[in-house]
Write a structure and sequence with these properties.
Layout: E1 8-13, E2 30-31, E3 34-35, H1 36-45, E4 51-56, H2 60-70, E5 75-78, H3 85-95, E6 103-108, H4 116-129, E7 133-139, E8 148-151, E9 157-161, H5 168-171, E10 175-184, H6 185-192, H7 208-215, E11 220-224, H8 237-257, E12 261-262, E13 268-270, E14 275-276, E15 281-282, E16 286-289, E17 293-294, E18 299-300, E19 304-307, E20 310-311, E21 316-317, E22 320-323, E23 326-327, E24 332-333, E25 337-339, E26 343-345, E27 350-362, E28 367-379, E29 384-385, E30 390-392, E31 402-404, E32 409-410, E33 415-417, E34 420-422, E35 427-428, E36 433-434, E37 443-444, H9 456-460, H10 465-473, H11 475-479
Parallel strand pairs: 1-4, 1-6, 4-5, 7-11, 12-15, 13-16, 14-17, 15-18, 16-19, 17-20, 18-21, 19-22, 20-23, 21-24, 22-25, 23-26, 24-27, 25-27, 26-27, 27-28, 28-31, 29-32, 30-33, 31-34, 33-36, 35-37
Antiparallel strand pairs: 2-3, 6-10, 7-10, 8-9
Bound molecules: uridine-diphosphate-N-acetylglucosamine and calcium ion.
Calcium ion (CA) binds near residues 108, 110, 233 and 235.
Length: about 475
């Protein structure tokens, strides 16, 4: 196998992650829209390995089900008891039939910031140098918890000592084990057979393989990773937040370099699956989640959360929450709108202030400007829906559909009691409860007639401020019986 195509990548994900203090297995915690192990699997995939094996153990049904959802080609190896990282790799090699010839890359399932490019470089260095093992190392500001890289007088790596097993002098070493290795598959299997458990945790440490190979006279190499932030291992929720911030910053940086304006990266949050068109503009306080796409020249935010939503070119979405919605070209949404699944706003359409929509197709240029609920509806083009209208879609048992044509003008405070259809070019009067279909071009009026009872205040509220005001405004009218 060539440097570009390792024989196998093994991802270690059997541990419980006790330091997370969580009912959710550690590797299933999410940052930027993907689980920790999902990030590692995605980076591993970029190497196009012949085999990609994830070692599962703790909560393995849950982890396995998750893996088949995110990458159905992944193989899993079960480690029934978590006897250490070395034991975990043994389980993976057994799953692959025991002897894997060629390069085997091992990564931990809790290092989500690692990129495919870094893994590729490691594999390249490993094969070019003809090493038995190459460990990816980094100098970190705080090495607490990490295994320390021990080098001999000549600078060559002689082994790795775990934090818990390290002497004070060893703990002072700043160069740490990232947990990422490239191995010669055959030598790895051999050395794993020799790993002992006489350490503070009574586990088979994968890191001991380095010392074993070195003593047997094999070449042990280290690739010093340039960016220590990539190898951040998540053991607790402080590190989870740290990793999320780093990945978010990385994603926003990519977007900005590709021509997106992000007004305040510190208060803008994106998932790895979010995409942008050129000159998209993102205001502060915005969260873009899932398969959201913000097209060219569209403007989103401030204070907006969009999930699986497409915002077409030149549209404006302000102070809005949307889920599985489509906002047409040059359409406007908000401020203060809520677009629920199945909302499809046409080009130049408007969902204005305090407007909620669900399962609604709104035609080109149609406006729903103020204080309205549009549920289960189809509205044609260039129609105007009056303020404070409600599409009454639910009879307590079933949902019903409302259809409104093109170029209609519906009055303010209308109730459209579904199922109901309003023809093209029709008008409805303010305050109407529309229960019957309206033919094209008709005016529908559906409200009580107004009745004025004159002189009522003078008779029923004598001496009140209202009576005095009425008396001075129109003495004759106020006294009328
Ligand atoms: C490990 C390394 C340490 C390195 C650090 C980098 C060992 C002994 N130590 O320490 O040198 O600096 O990663 O982040 O390798 N796992 C299993 N089965 C097990 C034990 C662990 O699958 O029996 C998995 C865990 O799910 C996790 C990964 O291996 O994804 C690393 O385990 P963890 O307990 O986090 O090791 P660290 O103490 O961080
Ligand atoms: Ca770890």
């Amino acid at each position: 196998m060539s440097a570009n195509r390792p024989a196998a990548v093994v991802v270690l994900a059997a541990g419980e992650g006790t330091r997370m203090k969580s009912a959710t297995p550690k590797v299933l915690h999410e940052i930027c829209g993907r689980s920790l192990v999902g990030h590692v699997v995605a980076a591993s995939r970029e190497l196009d390995p012949a085999h990609l094996v994830v070692v599962v153990g703790h909560a393995r049904e849950q982890v396995t089900a998750h893996l088949s959802a995110v990458d159905p080609e992944v193989r899993t190896a079960v480690q029934y008891e978590q006897n250490g990282t070395g034991h975990a790799v043994r389980m993976a090699l057994e799953e692959l039939g025991g002897n894997v010839t060629g390069t085997v890359i091992v990564v931990c399932g809790d290092t989500p910031l690692l990129t495919g490019e870094t893994l590729r470089q490691l594999a390249r260095t490993h094969e070019t140098d003809g090493n038995a093992v190459t460990v990816l190392t980094a100098e970190v500001p705080d090495s607490t918890g990490y295994g320390r890289i021990i080098r001999g007088a000549d600078g060559a790596v002689t082994g790795i000592v775990e934090h818990k097993d390290a002497t004070d002098a060893q703990r002072a070493v700043r160069e740490i084990n990232s947990g990422v290795f490239a191995f010669d598959g055959t030598l790895l299997a051999d050395a794993l057979g020799k790993v002992r458990t006489d350490n503070s945790q009574g586990e088979e440490y994968l890191t001991d393989v380095l010392g074993i190979l070195r003593e047997a006279g094999h070449r042990v190499g280290a690739a010093v990773g340039g960016d220590h932030r990539q190898i951040l291992g998540i053991n607790n929720r402080v590190q989870l937040a740290e990793a999320r911030a780093l990945l978010n910053a990385r994603l926003l940086e990519q977007a900005m370099l590709a021509g997106v304006t992000v007004v305040d990266p510190a208060s803008t949050f994106v998932d790895v699956t979010v995409t942008f068109g050129q000159d998209a503009l993102i205001h502060p306080g915005t969260q873009l989640l899932g398969a959201t796409h913000v097209a060219e020249r569209a403007e989103v935010g401030p204070n907006t959360r969009l999930k699986d939503t497409t915002v077409h070119a030149g549209a404006r979405v302000d102070n809005t929450v949307a889920d599985s919605a489509v906002v047409g070209e040059s359409a406007t949404v908000g401020p203060f709108a809520y677009l629920r699944p199945g909302t499809n706003l046409g080009a130049k359409a408007k969902a204005g202030t305090y407007v909620e929509m669900k399962n609604a197709t709104i035609g080109e240029g149609t406006k729903v400007p103020h204080l309205s609920y549009v549920g289960d509806a189809t509205i044609g083009e260039y129609t105007n829906i009056g303020a404070a209208s409600v599409f009454v879609n639910y009879d307590g048992e079933h949902k019903h559909h409302t259809t409104i044509g093109s170029h209609c003008k519906t009055g303010s405070d209308n109730m459209f009691v579904a199922p109901v259809t309003i023809g093209d070019g029709a008008y409805t009067a303010a305050g109407s409860v529309i229960t019957k279909d309206v033919p094209p071009g008709a005016l529908a009026v559906a409200r009580g007639q107004q009745r004025n009872i004159e002189g009522w205040v003078a008779r029923k509220r004598p001496g009140s401020a209202a009576a005095t005001a009425a008396q001075s405004a129109a003495p004759e009218d106020a006294a009328r019986h």
